[in-house]
Design brief:
Low-confidence stretches of chain A: none
Mean pLDDT of chain B: 94
Shape of chain A: globular
Strand content of chain A: 15-25%
Number of helices of chain B: 15
Distance between the termini of chain B: 22 Å
CATH class of chain A: Alpha Beta
Distance between the termini of chain A: 34 Å
Oligomer: heterodimer
Largest sheet of chain B: 7 strands, mixed
Number of domains of chain B: 2
Low-confidence stretches of chain B: 1-7
Strand order of the largest sheet of chain B: 4-10-9-8-7-5-6
CATH superfamily of the largest domain in chain B: Type I PLP-dependent aspartate aminotransferase-like (Major domain)
Strand order of the largest sheet of chain A: 3-2-1-4
Mean pLDDT of chain A: 90
CATH architecture of the largest domain in chain B: 3-Layer(aba) Sandwich
Radius of gyration of chain A: 14 Å
CATH topology of chain A: Sufe protein. Chain: A
CATH class of the largest domain in chain B: Alpha Beta
Chain lengths: 152, 421
Amino acid sequence: MEIEELYQEVILDHSRRPRNFGELPDAAVRVHGDNPACGDEIHLAVKFDAGGGLEDIKFTGRGCAISQASASLMTMKLKGKSRKEAVEMLHAFHDLVTNDAGDASKPLGDLRVMKGVRNFPQRVKCAMLPWRAVEQAFEQGAGEATVSTEPT
Amino acid sequence: MAAPVADYGVHKVAGSIVDWKALREEFPILREQAHGHPLIYFDSAATSQKPRVVIEALRNFYEHENANVHRGLHTLSSRATEAYEKARRRVAEYIGAASADEIVFTRGTTESINLVAQAWGGKFIHEGDVILLTEMEHHSNLVPWQLLAERTGARLRFVPVLDDGTLDLEQLPALLTPEVKLFAFTHISNSLGTINPVAELCEKAHAVGALTLVDAAQSVGHLTIDVREMGCDFAAFSGHKMCGPTGIGALYARKEILDSMPPWHGGGEMIVSVALEKSTFKKAPHRFEAGTPNIAGAIGLAAAIDYVDRIGRAAIFEHDSQLARYAFDRVNELPGTRVFGPAEERGALVGFVMEAAHPHDLTTFADQYGLALRGGHHCNQPLMRRFGVSGTTRASFYFYNTMEEIDRMIEILHKAARFFS
Protein backbone atom coordinates (compact mmCIF):
# COMPACT_ATOMS: atom_id res chain seq x y z
CA MET A 1 0.00 0.00 0.00
CA GLU A 2 1.48 3.28 -1.10
CA ILE A 3 0.69 6.44 0.78
CA GLU A 4 -0.37 8.05 -2.51
CA GLU A 5 -3.24 5.58 -2.83
CA LEU A 6 -4.76 6.97 0.35
CA TYR A 7 -3.86 10.60 -0.17
CA GLN A 8 -4.68 10.94 -3.84
CA GLU A 9 -4.03 14.34 -5.38
CA VAL A 10 -7.77 15.06 -5.49
CA ILE A 11 -8.04 14.41 -1.75
CA LEU A 12 -5.09 16.63 -0.92
CA ASP A 13 -6.55 19.34 -3.14
CA HIS A 14 -9.92 19.18 -1.38
CA SER A 15 -8.29 19.18 2.04
CA ARG A 16 -6.23 22.26 1.17
CA ARG A 17 -9.07 24.10 -0.55
CA PRO A 18 -12.32 22.60 0.69
CA ARG A 19 -15.38 23.36 -1.48
CA ASN A 20 -18.66 24.49 0.06
CA PHE A 21 -16.70 25.57 3.12
CA GLY A 22 -18.47 28.35 4.98
CA GLU A 23 -21.66 29.44 6.65
CA LEU A 24 -25.19 28.86 5.36
CA PRO A 25 -27.23 31.60 7.08
CA ASP A 26 -30.68 30.25 6.16
CA ALA A 27 -29.92 26.60 7.00
CA ALA A 28 -32.77 24.47 8.28
CA VAL A 29 -30.49 22.13 10.25
CA ARG A 30 -27.04 22.45 11.71
CA VAL A 31 -25.25 19.30 12.80
CA HIS A 32 -22.06 19.33 14.81
CA GLY A 33 -20.15 16.16 14.14
CA ASP A 34 -17.11 15.27 16.16
CA ASN A 35 -14.59 12.50 16.39
CA PRO A 36 -13.46 12.58 20.02
CA ALA A 37 -10.67 10.12 19.30
CA CYS A 38 -8.77 12.75 17.34
CA GLY A 39 -10.68 15.98 17.88
CA ASP A 40 -11.89 16.33 14.29
CA GLU A 41 -14.93 18.56 13.94
CA ILE A 42 -17.42 19.10 11.13
CA HIS A 43 -20.18 21.68 11.39
CA LEU A 44 -22.63 20.89 8.66
CA ALA A 45 -25.43 23.23 7.58
CA VAL A 46 -28.25 21.97 5.38
CA LYS A 47 -31.11 23.65 3.55
CA PHE A 48 -33.90 21.44 2.24
CA ASP A 49 -35.95 22.00 -0.91
CA ALA A 50 -39.73 21.64 -1.07
CA GLY A 51 -39.45 17.89 -1.64
CA GLY A 52 -37.14 17.31 1.32
CA GLY A 53 -34.06 17.07 -0.88
CA LEU A 54 -30.76 18.86 -0.31
CA GLU A 55 -31.06 22.32 -1.81
CA ASP A 56 -27.82 23.55 -0.30
CA ILE A 57 -25.19 22.12 1.99
CA LYS A 58 -22.08 23.74 3.48
CA PHE A 59 -19.64 22.96 6.23
CA THR A 60 -16.98 24.41 8.48
CA GLY A 61 -14.65 22.66 10.88
CA ARG A 62 -11.15 21.43 11.30
CA GLY A 63 -9.49 18.08 11.19
CA CYS A 64 -7.35 15.71 9.23
CA ALA A 65 -7.06 15.73 5.45
CA ILE A 66 -9.34 12.70 5.16
CA SER A 67 -12.25 14.16 7.12
CA GLN A 68 -12.00 17.59 5.47
CA ALA A 69 -11.67 16.21 1.94
CA SER A 70 -14.48 13.75 2.58
CA ALA A 71 -16.75 16.62 3.68
CA SER A 72 -15.78 18.73 0.68
CA LEU A 73 -16.35 15.93 -1.83
CA MET A 74 -19.57 14.91 -0.13
CA THR A 75 -21.12 18.37 -0.22
CA MET A 76 -20.33 18.70 -3.93
CA LYS A 77 -21.91 15.35 -4.61
CA LEU A 78 -25.01 15.76 -2.49
CA LYS A 79 -26.14 19.24 -3.46
CA GLY A 80 -29.44 18.91 -5.32
CA LYS A 81 -29.92 15.23 -4.45
CA SER A 82 -33.15 13.82 -3.02
CA ARG A 83 -33.17 12.26 0.41
CA LYS A 84 -33.45 8.81 -1.13
CA GLU A 85 -30.47 9.39 -3.40
CA ALA A 86 -28.41 10.79 -0.55
CA VAL A 87 -29.12 7.81 1.70
CA GLU A 88 -28.23 5.39 -1.09
CA MET A 89 -25.01 7.25 -1.61
CA LEU A 90 -24.23 7.13 2.10
CA HIS A 91 -24.53 3.33 2.06
CA ALA A 92 -22.49 3.05 -1.11
CA PHE A 93 -19.81 5.29 0.35
CA HIS A 94 -19.69 3.29 3.57
CA ASP A 95 -19.22 0.14 1.49
CA LEU A 96 -16.53 1.84 -0.55
CA VAL A 97 -14.39 2.71 2.48
CA THR A 98 -14.97 -0.49 4.43
CA ASN A 99 -15.63 -3.32 2.04
CA ASP A 100 -13.39 -4.72 -0.68
CA ALA A 101 -16.37 -5.78 -2.77
CA GLY A 102 -18.24 -2.54 -2.28
CA ASP A 103 -17.23 -0.35 -5.17
CA ALA A 104 -18.76 -2.00 -8.24
CA SER A 105 -21.45 -0.24 -10.25
CA LYS A 106 -22.30 2.27 -7.57
CA PRO A 107 -23.16 5.86 -8.45
CA LEU A 108 -20.28 7.32 -6.49
CA GLY A 109 -18.33 9.02 -9.26
CA ASP A 110 -15.62 11.31 -7.81
CA LEU A 111 -16.11 9.90 -4.34
CA ARG A 112 -14.29 6.79 -5.45
CA VAL A 113 -11.00 8.59 -4.81
CA MET A 114 -11.67 7.82 -1.13
CA LYS A 115 -11.37 4.10 -1.78
CA GLY A 116 -7.86 3.91 -0.30
CA VAL A 117 -9.31 4.48 3.17
CA ARG A 118 -10.36 0.83 3.30
CA ASN A 119 -6.69 -0.11 3.73
CA PHE A 120 -6.46 2.13 6.79
CA PRO A 121 -9.19 0.89 9.16
CA GLN A 122 -8.29 3.50 11.80
CA ARG A 123 -9.19 6.23 9.31
CA VAL A 124 -12.68 5.01 8.33
CA LYS A 125 -14.25 7.17 11.04
CA CYS A 126 -12.51 10.24 9.62
CA ALA A 127 -14.01 9.58 6.18
CA MET A 128 -17.47 8.77 7.55
CA LEU A 129 -17.79 11.75 9.92
CA PRO A 130 -19.44 14.17 7.42
CA TRP A 131 -21.75 11.42 6.21
CA ARG A 132 -22.86 10.70 9.77
CA ALA A 133 -23.65 14.39 10.05
CA VAL A 134 -25.81 14.32 6.90
CA GLU A 135 -27.66 11.26 8.14
CA GLN A 136 -28.35 13.11 11.38
CA ALA A 137 -29.51 16.18 9.47
CA PHE A 138 -32.21 14.12 7.73
CA GLU A 139 -33.30 12.56 10.99
CA GLN A 140 -33.39 15.90 12.76
CA GLY A 141 -35.24 17.79 10.01
CA ALA A 142 -34.82 21.18 11.70
CA GLY A 143 -32.79 22.91 14.39
CA GLU A 144 -29.48 21.78 15.83
CA ALA A 145 -28.02 18.37 16.50
CA THR A 146 -24.77 16.73 17.37
CA VAL A 147 -23.36 13.45 16.20
CA SER A 148 -20.25 11.62 17.29
CA THR A 149 -18.17 8.81 15.88
CA GLU A 150 -18.14 7.39 19.40
CA PRO A 151 -21.71 6.78 20.54
CA THR A 152 -22.20 7.30 24.26
CA MET B 1 20.96 24.69 12.38
CA ALA B 2 21.00 21.79 14.76
CA ALA B 3 24.15 21.13 16.68
CA PRO B 4 25.89 18.13 15.16
CA VAL B 5 24.98 14.85 16.77
CA ALA B 6 28.39 14.59 18.41
CA ASP B 7 27.70 17.66 20.55
CA TYR B 8 24.95 15.82 22.31
CA GLY B 9 27.45 13.18 23.37
CA VAL B 10 24.89 10.46 23.64
CA HIS B 11 27.50 7.76 23.62
CA LYS B 12 29.58 9.46 26.26
CA VAL B 13 27.27 9.19 29.22
CA ALA B 14 29.16 10.16 32.33
CA GLY B 15 30.35 7.27 34.42
CA SER B 16 28.64 4.78 32.19
CA ILE B 17 30.01 2.20 29.82
CA VAL B 18 26.69 1.18 28.38
CA ASP B 19 26.84 0.02 24.78
CA TRP B 20 23.45 1.37 23.74
CA LYS B 21 23.58 -0.06 20.23
CA ALA B 22 24.29 -3.53 21.60
CA LEU B 23 21.25 -3.25 23.89
CA ARG B 24 19.05 -3.06 20.82
CA GLU B 25 20.00 -6.64 20.01
CA GLU B 26 18.26 -7.72 23.21
CA PHE B 27 14.90 -6.51 21.86
CA PRO B 28 13.78 -9.01 19.22
CA ILE B 29 10.95 -6.78 18.00
CA LEU B 30 13.36 -4.05 16.93
CA ARG B 31 14.32 -6.27 13.99
CA GLU B 32 10.77 -6.01 12.63
CA GLN B 33 9.98 -4.12 9.47
CA ALA B 34 6.92 -1.99 8.78
CA HIS B 35 5.84 -1.34 5.19
CA GLY B 36 9.21 -2.57 3.96
CA HIS B 37 11.23 -0.22 6.17
CA PRO B 38 13.19 -0.96 9.34
CA LEU B 39 10.96 -0.24 12.33
CA ILE B 40 11.63 3.01 14.18
CA TYR B 41 9.68 2.68 17.38
CA PHE B 42 8.94 6.11 18.84
CA ASP B 43 5.91 5.18 20.93
CA SER B 44 7.49 4.00 24.17
CA ALA B 45 5.46 6.47 26.23
CA ALA B 46 2.44 4.38 25.22
CA THR B 47 4.20 1.10 25.85
CA SER B 48 7.83 0.10 25.78
CA GLN B 49 9.23 -2.88 23.94
CA LYS B 50 10.34 -5.96 25.84
CA PRO B 51 13.84 -7.39 26.10
CA ARG B 52 14.40 -11.10 25.64
CA VAL B 53 15.04 -11.63 29.39
CA VAL B 54 11.50 -10.49 30.20
CA ILE B 55 9.96 -12.65 27.49
CA GLU B 56 12.05 -15.56 28.79
CA ALA B 57 11.00 -14.93 32.40
CA LEU B 58 7.34 -15.29 31.40
CA ARG B 59 8.10 -18.44 29.46
CA ASN B 60 10.18 -19.87 32.29
CA PHE B 61 7.40 -19.27 34.76
CA TYR B 62 4.82 -21.05 32.63
CA GLU B 63 7.20 -23.91 31.84
CA HIS B 64 8.56 -24.51 35.35
CA GLU B 65 6.66 -22.73 38.09
CA ASN B 66 3.06 -22.19 37.04
CA ALA B 67 0.50 -22.78 39.79
CA ASN B 68 -1.84 -20.61 41.80
CA VAL B 69 -0.32 -18.65 44.68
CA HIS B 70 -0.86 -18.71 48.45
CA ARG B 71 -3.22 -21.66 48.64
CA GLY B 72 -1.66 -24.79 47.23
CA LEU B 73 0.49 -27.03 49.36
CA HIS B 74 2.30 -28.63 46.46
CA THR B 75 5.73 -27.92 45.06
CA LEU B 76 4.68 -25.76 42.15
CA SER B 77 2.43 -23.61 44.29
CA SER B 78 5.33 -22.97 46.65
CA ARG B 79 7.54 -21.99 43.72
CA ALA B 80 4.90 -19.69 42.28
CA THR B 81 4.15 -18.09 45.65
CA GLU B 82 7.82 -17.56 46.36
CA ALA B 83 8.45 -16.00 42.94
CA TYR B 84 5.37 -13.76 43.25
CA GLU B 85 6.31 -12.47 46.70
CA LYS B 86 9.92 -12.07 45.65
CA ALA B 87 8.68 -9.87 42.82
CA ARG B 88 6.83 -7.74 45.38
CA ARG B 89 10.03 -7.30 47.39
CA ARG B 90 11.88 -6.39 44.20
CA VAL B 91 9.31 -3.69 43.34
CA ALA B 92 9.57 -2.27 46.86
CA GLU B 93 13.33 -2.12 46.64
CA TYR B 94 13.20 -0.57 43.15
CA ILE B 95 11.13 2.43 44.25
CA GLY B 96 12.62 2.80 47.71
CA ALA B 97 9.57 1.64 49.70
CA ALA B 98 10.20 0.79 53.35
CA SER B 99 8.69 -2.67 52.98
CA ALA B 100 7.08 -5.05 50.51
CA ASP B 101 3.87 -4.66 52.52
CA GLU B 102 3.51 -1.23 50.95
CA ILE B 103 3.21 -2.67 47.42
CA VAL B 104 -0.13 -3.76 45.98
CA PHE B 105 0.01 -5.46 42.61
CA THR B 106 -2.55 -4.03 40.19
CA ARG B 107 -3.21 -4.11 36.45
CA GLY B 108 -1.34 -0.85 36.06
CA THR B 109 -1.36 2.86 36.81
CA THR B 110 -5.05 3.31 36.05
CA GLU B 111 -6.15 0.54 38.38
CA SER B 112 -3.79 1.77 41.10
CA ILE B 113 -5.34 5.24 41.01
CA ASN B 114 -8.87 3.84 40.96
CA LEU B 115 -8.00 1.73 43.99
CA VAL B 116 -6.98 4.84 45.92
CA ALA B 117 -9.99 6.85 44.71
CA GLN B 118 -12.42 4.12 45.70
CA ALA B 119 -10.95 2.47 48.80
CA TRP B 120 -9.16 5.44 50.38
CA GLY B 121 -11.37 8.14 48.86
CA GLY B 122 -14.57 6.28 49.71
CA LYS B 123 -13.62 6.31 53.39
CA PHE B 124 -11.77 9.57 53.84
CA ILE B 125 -13.22 12.02 51.30
CA HIS B 126 -16.38 13.87 52.28
CA GLU B 127 -18.58 16.62 50.96
CA GLY B 128 -16.73 19.92 50.78
CA ASP B 129 -13.28 18.32 50.70
CA VAL B 130 -11.01 19.30 47.84
CA ILE B 131 -8.90 17.08 45.62
CA LEU B 132 -6.18 19.09 43.94
CA LEU B 133 -5.01 17.96 40.51
CA THR B 134 -3.19 19.69 37.66
CA GLU B 135 -4.26 20.64 34.14
CA MET B 136 -1.71 18.24 32.69
CA GLU B 137 -3.09 15.02 34.18
CA HIS B 138 -3.65 11.98 32.02
CA HIS B 139 -7.32 10.96 32.00
CA SER B 140 -6.37 8.12 34.37
CA ASN B 141 -5.48 10.66 37.05
CA LEU B 142 -8.54 12.79 36.36
CA VAL B 143 -11.60 10.64 35.68
CA PRO B 144 -11.33 8.51 38.89
CA TRP B 145 -11.38 11.76 40.91
CA GLN B 146 -14.34 13.13 38.94
CA LEU B 147 -16.23 9.94 39.80
CA LEU B 148 -15.24 10.23 43.46
CA ALA B 149 -16.26 13.90 43.55
CA GLU B 150 -19.65 13.04 42.06
CA ARG B 151 -20.18 10.32 44.64
CA THR B 152 -19.08 12.29 47.69
CA GLY B 153 -19.74 15.95 46.89
CA ALA B 154 -16.04 16.72 47.02
CA ARG B 155 -14.64 19.41 44.72
CA LEU B 156 -11.78 19.31 42.24
CA ARG B 157 -9.21 22.05 41.76
CA PHE B 158 -6.48 22.30 39.18
CA VAL B 159 -3.01 23.78 39.16
CA PRO B 160 -2.81 25.65 35.82
CA VAL B 161 -0.16 24.92 33.21
CA LEU B 162 1.93 27.81 31.89
CA ASP B 163 2.64 28.36 28.20
CA ASP B 164 6.06 26.73 28.57
CA GLY B 165 4.41 23.52 29.77
CA THR B 166 5.39 23.81 33.42
CA LEU B 167 3.02 24.10 36.36
CA ASP B 168 2.09 27.58 37.55
CA LEU B 169 3.50 27.12 41.03
CA GLU B 170 2.75 30.71 41.97
CA GLN B 171 -0.90 29.68 42.16
CA LEU B 172 -0.13 26.92 44.63
CA PRO B 173 -0.60 28.89 47.88
CA ALA B 174 -4.10 29.92 46.75
CA LEU B 175 -5.01 26.39 45.70
CA LEU B 176 -3.42 24.38 48.51
CA THR B 177 -5.78 25.31 51.28
CA PRO B 178 -6.68 23.21 54.33
CA GLU B 179 -9.75 21.77 52.54
CA VAL B 180 -7.38 19.93 50.21
CA LYS B 181 -7.24 16.31 51.35
CA LEU B 182 -5.24 14.96 48.43
CA PHE B 183 -2.90 16.45 45.86
CA ALA B 184 -2.54 14.03 42.93
CA PHE B 185 -0.18 14.89 40.08
CA THR B 186 1.95 13.37 37.41
CA HIS B 187 5.70 13.06 37.74
CA ILE B 188 6.33 13.43 33.99
CA SER B 189 3.68 14.74 31.58
CA ASN B 190 2.92 12.19 28.87
CA SER B 191 2.37 14.84 26.21
CA LEU B 192 4.52 17.80 27.28
CA GLY B 193 7.46 15.91 28.74
CA THR B 194 7.49 18.27 31.73
CA ILE B 195 9.20 16.85 34.81
CA ASN B 196 7.40 18.12 37.88
CA PRO B 197 9.23 18.97 41.14
CA VAL B 198 7.73 16.06 43.04
CA ALA B 199 9.48 16.49 46.39
CA GLU B 200 8.62 20.20 46.54
CA LEU B 201 4.97 19.53 45.70
CA CYS B 202 4.72 16.79 48.32
CA GLU B 203 6.26 18.99 50.98
CA LYS B 204 3.87 21.85 50.24
CA ALA B 205 0.88 19.51 50.28
CA HIS B 206 1.91 18.00 53.59
CA ALA B 207 2.24 21.48 55.07
CA VAL B 208 -1.55 21.88 54.77
CA GLY B 209 -2.24 18.33 55.87
CA ALA B 210 -2.99 16.90 52.42
CA LEU B 211 -1.80 13.50 51.25
CA THR B 212 -0.06 13.14 47.89
CA LEU B 213 -0.34 10.74 44.98
CA VAL B 214 2.30 10.63 42.25
CA ASP B 215 1.42 9.24 38.84
CA ALA B 216 4.77 7.70 38.00
CA ALA B 217 3.69 6.00 34.76
CA GLN B 218 6.10 8.00 32.60
CA SER B 219 8.95 8.21 35.09
CA VAL B 220 9.30 4.82 36.74
CA GLY B 221 11.36 3.27 33.96
CA HIS B 222 13.26 6.41 33.06
CA LEU B 223 14.76 7.82 36.23
CA THR B 224 15.60 6.81 39.76
CA ILE B 225 12.56 6.98 41.98
CA ASP B 226 12.68 6.86 45.74
CA VAL B 227 9.22 7.25 47.23
CA ARG B 228 10.60 8.13 50.63
CA GLU B 229 12.87 10.83 49.25
CA MET B 230 10.02 12.21 47.16
CA GLY B 231 7.86 12.09 50.28
CA CYS B 232 4.71 10.92 48.51
CA ASP B 233 1.97 8.95 50.24
CA PHE B 234 0.83 7.07 47.14
CA ALA B 235 2.59 6.27 43.88
CA ALA B 236 1.06 4.50 40.89
CA PHE B 237 2.80 2.92 37.93
CA SER B 238 2.63 0.28 35.21
CA GLY B 239 5.16 -2.35 34.27
CA HIS B 240 4.64 -2.20 30.53
CA LYS B 241 6.20 1.22 30.05
CA MET B 242 9.45 -0.02 31.63
CA CYS B 243 10.15 -3.20 29.66
CA GLY B 244 7.66 -5.30 31.64
CA PRO B 245 4.54 -7.12 30.45
CA THR B 246 1.16 -5.46 30.05
CA GLY B 247 -1.50 -6.03 32.71
CA ILE B 248 0.79 -5.64 35.71
CA GLY B 249 1.60 -2.58 37.75
CA ALA B 250 1.68 -1.49 41.33
CA LEU B 251 0.33 0.88 43.88
CA TYR B 252 2.70 2.09 46.54
CA ALA B 253 1.08 3.43 49.69
CA ARG B 254 2.65 4.22 53.05
CA LYS B 255 1.93 1.35 55.37
CA GLU B 256 -0.20 3.17 57.92
CA ILE B 257 -2.35 4.58 55.12
CA LEU B 258 -2.72 1.23 53.39
CA ASP B 259 -3.63 -0.39 56.74
CA SER B 260 -6.34 2.22 57.28
CA MET B 261 -8.02 1.53 53.95
CA PRO B 262 -11.04 -0.78 53.69
CA PRO B 263 -11.05 -3.66 51.19
CA TRP B 264 -11.75 -2.77 47.58
CA HIS B 265 -12.64 -5.81 45.49
CA GLY B 266 -14.01 -8.76 47.42
CA GLY B 267 -13.26 -12.39 46.66
CA GLY B 268 -10.77 -15.13 47.19
CA GLU B 269 -7.17 -14.43 48.21
CA MET B 270 -8.04 -11.30 50.22
CA ILE B 271 -9.93 -12.98 53.09
CA VAL B 272 -8.96 -14.66 56.37
CA SER B 273 -12.25 -16.38 57.04
CA VAL B 274 -15.62 -16.29 55.39
CA ALA B 275 -19.02 -17.06 56.88
CA LEU B 276 -22.25 -16.72 54.96
CA GLU B 277 -23.05 -13.31 56.37
CA LYS B 278 -19.65 -11.83 57.09
CA SER B 279 -15.94 -12.18 56.41
CA THR B 280 -12.68 -11.04 57.86
CA PHE B 281 -9.92 -9.74 55.66
CA LYS B 282 -6.21 -10.16 55.31
CA LYS B 283 -3.82 -7.39 56.13
CA ALA B 284 -2.51 -5.11 53.42
CA PRO B 285 -1.30 -5.59 50.75
CA HIS B 286 -3.12 -8.91 50.23
CA ARG B 287 -6.41 -7.35 51.32
CA PHE B 288 -6.34 -5.45 48.02
CA GLU B 289 -5.56 -8.38 45.77
CA ALA B 290 -8.81 -10.29 45.37
CA GLY B 291 -8.80 -13.25 43.02
CA THR B 292 -5.91 -14.94 41.26
CA PRO B 293 -3.42 -12.19 40.56
CA ASN B 294 -1.32 -11.69 37.44
CA ILE B 295 1.40 -13.99 38.76
CA ALA B 296 3.37 -14.28 35.53
CA GLY B 297 3.06 -10.52 35.06
CA ALA B 298 4.55 -9.80 38.49
CA ILE B 299 7.44 -12.14 37.75
CA GLY B 300 7.93 -10.50 34.35
CA LEU B 301 7.91 -7.09 36.03
CA ALA B 302 10.62 -8.21 38.44
CA ALA B 303 12.69 -9.38 35.47
CA ALA B 304 12.16 -5.97 33.82
CA ILE B 305 13.30 -4.23 37.01
CA ASP B 306 16.45 -6.35 37.12
CA TYR B 307 17.09 -5.50 33.49
CA VAL B 308 16.54 -1.75 33.87
CA ASP B 309 18.67 -1.65 37.02
CA ARG B 310 21.47 -3.53 35.32
CA ILE B 311 21.68 -0.75 32.73
CA GLY B 312 21.21 1.83 35.46
CA ARG B 313 18.46 4.42 35.67
CA ALA B 314 20.86 7.36 35.92
CA ALA B 315 22.44 6.32 32.62
CA ILE B 316 19.03 5.71 31.05
CA PHE B 317 17.82 9.14 32.13
CA GLU B 318 20.87 10.84 30.72
CA HIS B 319 20.62 8.93 27.44
CA ASP B 320 16.88 9.57 27.08
CA SER B 321 17.25 13.26 27.99
CA GLN B 322 19.83 13.70 25.27
CA LEU B 323 17.57 12.04 22.73
CA ALA B 324 14.68 14.25 23.82
CA ARG B 325 16.71 17.46 23.73
CA TYR B 326 18.12 16.60 20.33
CA ALA B 327 14.65 15.75 18.99
CA PHE B 328 13.24 18.96 20.48
CA ASP B 329 15.87 21.06 18.73
CA ARG B 330 15.57 19.27 15.40
CA VAL B 331 11.75 19.29 15.32
CA ASN B 332 11.74 22.91 16.43
CA GLU B 333 13.72 23.97 13.33
CA LEU B 334 11.18 22.47 10.96
CA PRO B 335 9.18 25.27 9.33
CA GLY B 336 5.66 25.82 10.63
CA THR B 337 6.17 23.60 13.64
CA ARG B 338 5.24 24.20 17.25
CA VAL B 339 6.83 22.04 19.94
CA PHE B 340 5.16 21.75 23.33
CA GLY B 341 6.71 21.62 26.76
CA PRO B 342 9.92 22.90 28.29
CA ALA B 343 12.99 23.28 26.10
CA GLU B 344 15.53 22.25 28.70
CA GLU B 345 14.90 19.47 31.18
CA ARG B 346 12.31 17.09 29.82
CA GLY B 347 11.20 13.49 29.83
CA ALA B 348 11.89 11.20 26.91
CA LEU B 349 9.34 12.61 24.49
CA VAL B 350 8.55 15.46 22.14
CA GLY B 351 5.00 16.55 21.29
CA PHE B 352 4.45 18.91 18.37
CA VAL B 353 2.09 20.14 15.67
CA MET B 354 2.98 20.97 12.08
CA GLU B 355 0.95 23.50 10.11
CA ALA B 356 1.23 21.36 7.01
CA ALA B 357 -0.35 18.20 8.37
CA HIS B 358 -2.87 17.10 10.98
CA PRO B 359 -1.39 14.69 13.58
CA HIS B 360 -3.37 11.76 12.19
CA ASP B 361 -2.26 12.40 8.63
CA LEU B 362 1.29 12.77 9.85
CA THR B 363 1.28 9.50 11.80
CA THR B 364 -0.34 7.61 8.91
CA PHE B 365 2.31 9.06 6.60
CA ALA B 366 5.19 8.25 8.98
CA ASP B 367 3.96 4.68 9.39
CA GLN B 368 4.44 4.13 5.67
CA TYR B 369 8.15 4.70 6.29
CA GLY B 370 8.32 2.33 9.26
CA LEU B 371 8.19 5.17 11.81
CA ALA B 372 5.80 4.58 14.72
CA LEU B 373 4.61 7.94 16.07
CA ARG B 374 1.45 8.69 17.96
CA GLY B 375 -1.08 11.32 16.92
CA GLY B 376 -4.06 12.49 18.91
CA HIS B 377 -4.94 13.83 22.33
CA HIS B 378 -2.85 11.27 24.28
CA CYS B 379 -5.56 10.95 26.95
CA ASN B 380 -4.99 14.65 27.70
CA GLN B 381 -8.09 16.30 26.26
CA PRO B 382 -8.24 19.19 28.77
CA LEU B 383 -4.55 19.91 28.24
CA MET B 384 -4.96 19.91 24.45
CA ARG B 385 -7.82 22.40 24.83
CA ARG B 386 -5.66 24.56 27.09
CA PHE B 387 -3.08 24.78 24.29
CA GLY B 388 -5.76 25.34 21.65
CA VAL B 389 -5.09 22.20 19.63
CA SER B 390 -7.20 19.12 19.00
CA GLY B 391 -4.17 16.89 19.28
CA THR B 392 -0.44 16.64 18.78
CA THR B 393 2.02 14.28 17.21
CA ARG B 394 4.27 12.64 19.76
CA ALA B 395 7.62 10.95 19.39
CA SER B 396 8.61 9.17 22.60
CA PHE B 397 11.89 7.45 23.28
CA TYR B 398 13.59 4.84 25.39
CA PHE B 399 17.17 3.73 25.79
CA TYR B 400 17.02 1.50 22.70
CA ASN B 401 16.43 4.51 20.43
CA THR B 402 19.24 6.33 18.67
CA MET B 403 20.15 9.78 17.34
CA GLU B 404 20.21 8.28 13.84
CA GLU B 405 16.57 7.30 14.23
CA ILE B 406 15.75 10.89 15.16
CA ASP B 407 17.59 12.11 12.06
CA ARG B 408 15.51 9.68 10.01
CA MET B 409 12.34 11.00 11.64
CA ILE B 410 13.29 14.53 10.67
CA GLU B 411 13.77 13.41 7.04
CA ILE B 412 10.33 11.79 7.09
CA LEU B 413 8.74 14.91 8.64
CA HIS B 414 10.31 17.01 5.87
CA LYS B 415 8.84 14.64 3.30
CA ALA B 416 5.45 14.87 5.00
CA ALA B 417 5.54 18.66 5.03
CA ARG B 418 6.24 18.66 1.29
CA PHE B 419 3.59 16.03 0.63
CA PHE B 420 0.75 17.72 2.50
CA SER B 421 1.41 21.38 1.75
